[in-house]
Amino acid sequence: MTLSYDKHADVLYIAFEALSPDKYVFVENEQGDVLKLDRIDNHVVGCTIPFFLARLKKGKIDIPEIGGGPLNEIAELVR
Predict the structure, then answer these.
(1) How far apart are CA 54 and CA 46, in angstroms?
(2) Residue bearing the bigger pLDDT, 74 or 54
């Protein structure tokens, strides 16, 4: 897993797997998070979370497709 945080934009980028661009598609969920899905079996291989720290201050970030717990731990790394 790789993480990248843009402090100025308050956006967290997570990659669970490294795939070439022709192997995945992007889908936005109801919260505005952008999920990167494997084209073949639709499992989540990455995620872009806008307003990451701002949302975290309001409570636990929950992305149903990948869960919420680990994101709170990641927040401690980017603060």
Answers:
(1) 20
(2) 54
